[in-house]
Amino acid sequence: MEKKVVELFAGVGGFRVGLNNVKLDKNGKTIEKNNFKFVWANQWEPSTKVQDAFLCYKTRFSKGNDDHEFSNEDISLVDKNSIPDFTLLTGGFPCQDYSVARSLSKEKGIEGKKGVLWWQINDILIKKNPPFVLLENVDRLLKSPSTQRGRDFGVMLRCFHDNNYSVEWRVINAAEYGHPQKRKRVYIFAYKNNTRHSESIIENTPEEIIFHKGIFAINFPISSNDKVTKKEIKDFVDLVEVSNDFEFSFENTGFLRDGIITTSKVYPHESKTINLIDILESNVIDSRYFLSEDNIKKFDYLKGNKRIDRISKSGHKYVYSEGKMTYPDDHNKPGRTMLTSEGTVNRSTHVVLDIITGEKRFITPIEAERLNEFPDNWTEMMSDKRRYFMMGNALVTGIVKKLGKSISKIIENEE
Ligand SMILES: C[S@@+](CC[C@H](N)C(=O)[O-])C[C@H]1O[C@@H](n2cnc3c(N)ncnc32)[C@H](O)[C@@H]1O
């Protein structure tokens, strides 16, 4: 089996950077270990005309004459049968409303909400039948929506079950495993039940898989765990019933096989941290990264303790309160979660003390790239604002790199 990969919602290429341990040389040329062969990538940003992420992806990975490997189209408009065959599907996609309803038109059967990108992934699973899938999402996915806890992830697991996959998942906070950012994301690894890998791993109990033998337990060791809970998703008649009635407390790791979910809360094994000081640049001279007096005043307020009287839409008076944040950010801790608003005057933006001058400043775009373990200057072809935005959307590539080593061996063993 060749290690052919498709990257969906590719952004600036976090999965590819991680899986192929991508670097840039002194001249900004991409050095890529072609362990995984990326055969097709799709990236389309609905909110802007200029397609910065796609342009970055293509600039970094195109070798010329390979336009067919890079798609800049809304994924919902792509004919899934036109995607080349591949072994591993990767992608980081939004947490949306995954509920379904029975469709009025009989041919369609079941319908999800329009614009919900999970259905595009599901369509690819059906049409292209990839043996392996690696996805990334915000950890909130496990609990959504608040009115029916666990429904959305339940819908997703039932789709995998109906398409004959087993699934492992784990919420990973990158900083707890020696990466420079406190970024908590759920990683999902699914495999067809007829793969060798699936047949061999199933010799273990679900408990052994989630605590010891599964891809997450091997690469992200745990120190302890709570008791497991189980739930059958196969007993629901179909996806509509799951969507209407399924509710469950998914814990931070779990396994689905034969329609039975096993989940448990696990606690990470302590590892050495990488801190802000380890990724800060020591030669920042550009004045635009340093805070003006005016911005300092704004940050003092935004990051501080506050109680504000507010009136709700229904006219009810309440007090909105916010605690004080560590400000400036502690050099001796990993960075906080980067959002797409990084670099703007916003409560969640990092403010650091410059190593040389001791003055307050924003993190630089290079430091933002370092927080996600991208090569320095990966996104240099766009404005600073867009560079921060891209990093707010991207993932910590070192997590994917670790998983990639295991996935590589798994695929090699399929032959
Ligand atoms: C969470 S980000 C993934 C970032 C990526 N993993 C990276 O490392 O940069 C989701 C991406 O999906 C893209 N996207 C949103 N809607 C899309 C659509 N309908 N078709 C294709 N891509 C879409 C967004 O532009 C964004 O880059």
Topology:
Layout: E1 4-8, H1 14-19, E2 23-24, E3 30-31, E4 37-42, H2 52-61, E5 70-71, E6 88-92, E7 100-102, E8 110-112, H3 118-128, E9 132-138, H4 151-162, E10 165-173, E11 184-192, H5 196-201, H6 206-213, H7 215-219, E12 222-225, E13 229-232, H8 239-245, E14 253-257, E15 260-264, E16 266-268, H9 276-279, H10 293-302, E17 306-311, E18 317-322, E19 351-353, E20 360-362, H11 365-371, H12 384-393, H13 397-412
Parallel strand pairs: 1-4, 1-6, 4-5, 6-9
Antiparallel strand pairs: 2-3, 7-8, 9-11, 10-11, 10-14, 12-16, 13-15, 14-15, 17-18, 19-20
The structure holds S-adenosylmethionine (SAM).
The main sheet orders its strands as 5-4-1-6-9-11-10-14-15-13
Low-pLDDT ranges: none
Summed up, the domain count is 2
Mean pLDDT figure: 96
Shape: globular
The helix-and-strand class reads: alpha+beta
> Which percent band covers the strand fraction?
15-25%
| CATH topology title of the largest domain | Rossmann fold
Quickly describe the structure.
The chain is built from 13 helices and 20 strands.
Task: Write up this protein.
- This protein is an alpha+beta fold and 415 residues long.
- The chain folds into 2 domains: 4-271 and 396-412, 3-Layer(aba) Sandwich (Rossmann fold); 276-391, DNA Methylase, Chain A, domain 2, CATH 3.90.120.
- Helices cover 27% and strands 22% of the residues.
- The protein has helices at 14-19, 52-61, 118-128, 151-162, 196-201, 206-213, 215-219, 239-245, 276-279, 293-302, 365-371, 384-393, 397-412, and strands spanning 4-8, 23-24, 30-31, 37-42, 70-71, 88-92, 100-102, 110-112, 132-138, 165-173, 184-192, 222-225, 229-232, 253-257, 260-264, 266-268, 306-311, 317-322, 351-353, 360-362.
- A 10-stranded mixed beta sheet has the order 5-4-1-6-9-11-10-14-15-13, sandwiched between helices. A two-stranded antiparallel sheet has the order 2-3.
- Strand 4, helix 2 (52-61) and strand 5 (70-71) form a beta-alpha-beta unit.
- Helix 4 runs antiparallel to helix 8 and helix 11 (365-371) runs parallel beside helix 12.
- The radius of gyration is 22 Å and the shape is globular.
- The model has no long low-confidence stretch (mean pLDDT 96).
